[in-house]
C-alpha cells in the first residue's frame, strides 16, 4: 500500500514537471476548435489593447512635442511671480550671461531669451490689442515651430521687423510690406513705441496666437521697452522631453531664489491633465474589453472541465494528487494565454511598426486637431510597456479565469466522477 | 414547424445548460451595459462640446453681416428694426438676442489688454447664453442702457482693477476712427477661469452703440430648444434677412463641429470592437451546444424534423441568448446612467478638461438611436455567429447520430 501510494505520488510529482507539461499541451489540442477560438479571443484582446496603447502613447508624445515645440519650450526660467502676474517690470537680469551658461550645459539643446509685453498694434487706422514677444531670430527657429508656419512673407531676420498672426494682420488691415505701429508702456511707465515693417504672417491653427500674437527681434524690443540685458523668460529646449525633469532640478538648484524654473506641464496648462483624463478613459475601456474576454475564456474552461469529469475521476482514482491536477489545468491555461498573446503580438507589433512609419491619416479632422496640438497624422509608438502590459494583463486574467473552475476539481469524488457521462 | 414551438424549445434548451449559458449571458450583459454607458458618456462629451459652442455666445444659428467673420469690426454691421423678431415659432426657440460685438482695448491704471467687447441686452442674454448661469461679484448689468462694464474675474485680476473702479475702453467707431470712453466696472463674472473669462467684457447695447456712433448691430443669435431644428431655422432666417449671412454653429465653430462628428465614429468603433470580442465566446458556446447534441439532433431528424427547422433551432438559441443579454444589459446600462445622472466629477483635471472642450462634470446622455444601433448589431452578431454551428447541425445525418 505504501509502495503503491509512494509510486503514485512520485509519479504525480513527475507528472507535474516534464511529462505533465507535455500532457497539458496535448490536452489543449484535443479540442482544436475550442482552443483556437479561446486563444483567438485572447489574441484579439491583446491586439486591440496593444494597438490602442501604442496609439495613445504616440498621440501623447505628439501632443507634448507639438505643444512644447510651438512656443513654450520644454522649460522656462522666469522671475518669481511673472507667470501669475505678467508685468513688464518683472524681469530676469544679466540675461546674456545666463543664456551663455545655459547653452554650455550638456542636456540643453537650445536656449534663448524672450521679452513679453501687451501692446496696441495698429496699421492704417485700425488698432488691436496683442501680445508682443521679443525673440532672438536665429535661436527662435530651433526653439519654436512658429517661424515655420509662415502663411505669407517670411520670419524675422533683424531690425525693424514684425512677424504677426495672420488673423491679426487681417484685422488691422496690414499686408506683408506694410508699416505697423506698436505701442506699449515701459517698466518706468513711459511710452514704448515701435514702427516696424510686417515681414511675414503665421497660421498656427490656434486662435489665441493667430489673433493675438506678434514677434519682433529682441534687440528692437529691448531698446523700445528700455530693458537693458533683461528679459521676461529664458526658454529652454532640452535634448529630449524625458530629460526635462532632471534638467529643471539642476537649474533650480543653481538659480537664485527669485528665479523659478517652470516645466512644460506648468507652461501649457491642461495638456498633462488632458492626457491623464484620456488615459483614465482608456483604462476603463480596456477594463471592459478584458472583462468580456475573461468571461469568455472562463466559460471555455468551465465547459472543458465539465466534459472531462470522467477523465479527472480516473486520474484521481489512479492516484494523482488534486494539486497536481489543478497544476496541470493551470498549465493548460498558461499555454492557452501564451498562444493567444503570441497571435496578438505577432499581428500587433508589425502593424504598429508599419504605422509608426507611415502614420494614420486623420483626414478631414486634421485641420481642427491643430488646436489640440495634434498633427495631421497619428503615429503610434511602440515601446516595451505597450507590448508587455496587454500580455501580462491577459495572462493574469486567463489564469484567474482558469483557477476558479480548476478549484472545483478538489471537490470531485473519484468514484462519482468516473460514473459521469 | 411553428416558430413559437421552436422558440419554446430553444428557450428550454438554454436552461438545460444553465452554467455555460449563464456565463455567455453575463459576457453579453457586460458588453451591452458597457456599450450603453460608454456611448452615453461619449454623447455627453459630444453634447457638452455643442452646448459650450452654442452657449459661448454662438447660439444654434447666427446672423452676421457679410465679411464680419474675416473682419469683425463695426464696419460690418446691419441695422435691425426695434420691432424685429426672428421668423421662428416660439416653441422651437429658447430665445434670441441682438448684439454688438467688436474687438477693443481696455486700459486700467497700469495695464492694457486686448478684449472682445459685447453690447448686450442682459434680459435676452439670461436665457440663451452662459451669462445666465455665472456667478457675479458686484452687480450684473441691469438693462440694455446700463453703461457700466461687466468683466471676467481673470481679466480684472490681470488688469489690476476691481468693482467700482474705472477703466478706459478703446475701439474703432463706425466712421473708422478710434473712439474711447471711461467705463465703471459694475461686476466681475466667474466662468471657471476659461479663455472666455480672460477676454470677454460686456456692457449695455445702447451705450456701446452710442460710443461707436451707430445704431446697427453686428449679430443676431438664436438659441433653439433642439439643435435638430437648425436647418429649418436657418432657412427661415435666411429668407427673412436677405443679404446677410445666416450660419449654424457648426460653421462658426468648426473645431467643435469636428470633435462632434468624431464622437459618432468613436462610438461606432467601440460597438464593433465589443461585438467582435463577444463573437468568440458566442461561437464557442454554440458549437459546444451543437456537438454535444449530435444524438439528439439525429433523433429529431429521424423523427421527421426538417433540416430548415434544425437550422432555425440553432439560430433561435443564439438569438434568444443574445436578446436576453441585450435587454438586461440595456436595463443595467440605463440604471448606471441614472446613477451617474448628476454627472461625473472631472474637476481633478480642470484645465485638461478645458483644453479638451469638456465641462467639469461629464453628464451621460442617452441617445435612443445608439441603443437601437447597438441592438441591431447585437442581433446581427447572434445571427452571424450561429451560421457555422447551424451548418454543422444540419449536416448531422440521422443514421450517423444514431450509430454513436
Structure characterization notes:
- The complex is a heterodimer of chains A (421) and B (404).
- Helix content of chain A is 56%, strand content 19%.
- By secondary structure, chain A is an alpha+beta fold.
- In chain A, the strands form two sheets. Chain A has a six-stranded mixed β-barrel with strand order 2-3-8-5-7-6, surrounded by four helices.
- In chain A, helix 3 runs antiparallel to helix 15 (384-407) and helix 13 packs antiparallel against helix 15 (384-407).
- With 404 residues, chain B is an alpha+beta fold.
- A six-stranded mixed beta barrel of chain B has the order 2-3-8-5-7-6. In chain B, strands 11-12 form a two-stranded antiparallel sheet.
- In chain B, a hairpin with a 5-residue loop joins strand 6 (166-172) and strand 7.
- The relative contact order of chain B is 0.18.
- At the A-B interface, helix 3, strand 2, strand 3, helix 11 and helix 14 of A face helix 2, strand 2, strand 3, helix 9 and helix 12 of B.
Amino acid at each position: 500500500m505504501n509502495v503503491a501510494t509512494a509510486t503514485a505520488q512520485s509519479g504525480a510529482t513527475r507528472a507535474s514537471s516534464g511529462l505533465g507539461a507535455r500532457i497539458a499541451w496535448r490536452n489543449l489540442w484535443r479540442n482544436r476548435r475550442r482552443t483556437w477560438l479561446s486563444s483567438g479571443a485572447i489574441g484579439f484582446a491583446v491586439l486591440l489593447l496593444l494597438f490602442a496603447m501604442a496609439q495613445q502613447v504616440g498621440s501623447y508624445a505628439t501632443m507634448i512635442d507639438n505643444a512644447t515645440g510651438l512656443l513654450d519650450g520644454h522649460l522656462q526660467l522666469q522671475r518669481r511671480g511673472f507667470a501669475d502676474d505678467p508685468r513688464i517690470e518683472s524681469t530676469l537680469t544679466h540675461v546674456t550671461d545666463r543664456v551663455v551658461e545655459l547653452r554650455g550645459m550638456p542636456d540643453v539643446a537650445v536656449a534663448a531669451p524672450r521679452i513679453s509685453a501687451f501692446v496696441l498694434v495698429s496699421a492704417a487706422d485700425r488698432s488691436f490689442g496683442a501680445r508682443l514677444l521679443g525673440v532672438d531670430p536665429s535661436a527662435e527657429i530651433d526653439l519654436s515651430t512658429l517661424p515655420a508656419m509662415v502663411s505669407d512673407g517670411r520670419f524675422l531676420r533683424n531690425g525693424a521687423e514684425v512677424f504677426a498672426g495672420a488673423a491679426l494682420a487681417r484685422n488691422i488691415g496690414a499686408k506683408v510690406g506694410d508699416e505697423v505701429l506698436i505701442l506699449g508702456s515701459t517698466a518706468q511707465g513711459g511710452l514704448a513705441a515701435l514702427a516696424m515693417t510686417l515681414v511675414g504672417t503665421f497660421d498656427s491653427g490656434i486662435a489665441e496666437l493667430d489673433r493675438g500674437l506678434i514677434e519682433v527681434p529682441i534687440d528692437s524690443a529691448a531698446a523700445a521697452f528700455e530693458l537693458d540685458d533683461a528679459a521676461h523668460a529664458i526658454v529652454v529646449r532640452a535634448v529630449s522631453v524625458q530629460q526635462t525633469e532632471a534638467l529643471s532640478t539642476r537649474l533650480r538648484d543653481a538659480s537664485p531664489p527669485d528665479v523659478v524654473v517652470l516645466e512644460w506641464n506648468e507652461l501649457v496648462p491642461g495638456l498633462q491633465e488632458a492626457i491623464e483624463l484620456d488615459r483614465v478613459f482608456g483604462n476603463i475601456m480596456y477594463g471592459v474589453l478584458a472583462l468580456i474576454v475573461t468571461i469568455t475564456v472562463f466559460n471555455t474552461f468551465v465547459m472543458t472541465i465539465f466534459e472531462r469529469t470522467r477523465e479527472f475521476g480516473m486520474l484521481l482514482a489512479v492516484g494523482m494528487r488534486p494539486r497536481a491536477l489543478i497544476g496541470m489545468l493551470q498549465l493548460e491555461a498558461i499555454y492557452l494565454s501564451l498562444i493567444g498573446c503570441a497571435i496578438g503580438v505577432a499581428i500587433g507589433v508589425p502593424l504598429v511598426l508599419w504605422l509608426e512609419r507611415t502614420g494614420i491619416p486623420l483626414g478631414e479632422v486634421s485641420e481642427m486637431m491643430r488646436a489640440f496640438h495634434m498633427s495631421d497624422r497619428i503615429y503610434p509608438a511602440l515601446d516595451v510597456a505597450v507590448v508587455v502590459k496587454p500580455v501580462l494583463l491577459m495572462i493574469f486574467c486567463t489564469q484567474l479565469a482558469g483557477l476558479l473552475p480548476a478549484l472545483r476539481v478538489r471537490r470531485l469524488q473519484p468514484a462519482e466522477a468516473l460514473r459521469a457521462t | 414547424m411553428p416558430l413559437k414551438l421552436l422558440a419554446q424549445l430553444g428557450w428550454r434548451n438554454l436552461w438545460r445548460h444553465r452554467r455555460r449559458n449563464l456565463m455567455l449571458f453575463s459576457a453579453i450583459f457586460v458588453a451591452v451595459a458597457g456599450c450603453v454607458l460608454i456611448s452615453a458618456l461619449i454623447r455627453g462629451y459630444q453634447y457638452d462640446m455643442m452646448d459650450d459652442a452654442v452657449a459661448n455666445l454662438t447660439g444654434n444659428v447666427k446672423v452676421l453681416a457679410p465679411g464680419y467673420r474675416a473682419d469683425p469690426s463695426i464696419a460690418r454691421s446691419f441695422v435691425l428694426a426695434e420691432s424685429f423678431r426672428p421668423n421662428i415659432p416660439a416653441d422651437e426657440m429658447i430665445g434670441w438676442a441682438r448684439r454688438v460685438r467688436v474687438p477693443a482695448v481696455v486700459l486700467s491704471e497700469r495695464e492694457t489688454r486686448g478684449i472682445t467687447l459685447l453690447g448686450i441686452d442682459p434680459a435676452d442674454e439670461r436665457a440663451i447664453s452662459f451669462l445666465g448661469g455665472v456667478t457675479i461679484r458686484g452687480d450684473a448689468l441691469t438693462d440694455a442702457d446700463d453703461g457700466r462694464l461687466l468683466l471676467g474675474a481673470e481679466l480684472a485680476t490681470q488688469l489690476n482693477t476691481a468693482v467700482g473702479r474705472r477703466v478706459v475702453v478703446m475701439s474703432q467707431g463706425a466712421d473708422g476712427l478710434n473712439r474711447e470712453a471711461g467705463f465703471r466696472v459694475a461686476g466681475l463674472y466667474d466662468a471657471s477661469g476659461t479663455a472666455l473669462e480672460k477676454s470677454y467684457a460686456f456692457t449695455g447695447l445702447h451705450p456701446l452703440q452710442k460710443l461707436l456712433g451707430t445704431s446697427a448691430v453686428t449679430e443676431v443669435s438664436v438659441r433653439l430648444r433642439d439643435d435638430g431644428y437648425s436647418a429649418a431655422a436657418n432657412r427661415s432666417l435666411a429668407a427673412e434677412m436677405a443679404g446677410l449671412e445666416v450660419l449654424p454653429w457648426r460653421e462658426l465653430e468648426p473645431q467643435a463641429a469636428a470633435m462632434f462628428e468624431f464622437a459618432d465614429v468613436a462610438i461606432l468603433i467601440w460597438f464593433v470592437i465589443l461585438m467582435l470580442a463577444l463573437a468568440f465566446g458566442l461561437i464557442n458556446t454554440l458549437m459546444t451546444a451543437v456537438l454535444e447534441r449530435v444524438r439528439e439532433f439525429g433523433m429529431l431528424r429521424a423523427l421527421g424534423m426538417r433540416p430548415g427547422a434544425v437550422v432555425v433551432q440553432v439560430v433561435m438559441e443564439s438569438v434568444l441568448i443574445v436578446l436576453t443579454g441585450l435587454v438586461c444589459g440595456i436595463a443595467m446600462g440605463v440604471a448606471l446612467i441614472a446613477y451617474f445622472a448628476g454627472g461625473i466629477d472631472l474637476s481633478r483635471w480642470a484645465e485638461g478638461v478645458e483644453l479638451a472642450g469638456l465641462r467639469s462634470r461629464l453628464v451621460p446622455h442617452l441617445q435612443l438611436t445608439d441603443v437601437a444601433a447597438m441592438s441591431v448589431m447585437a442581433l446581427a452578431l447572434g445571427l452571424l455567429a450561429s451560421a457555422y454551428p447551424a451548418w454543422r447541425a444540419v449536416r448531422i445525418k440521422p443514421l450517423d447520430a444514431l450509430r454513436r
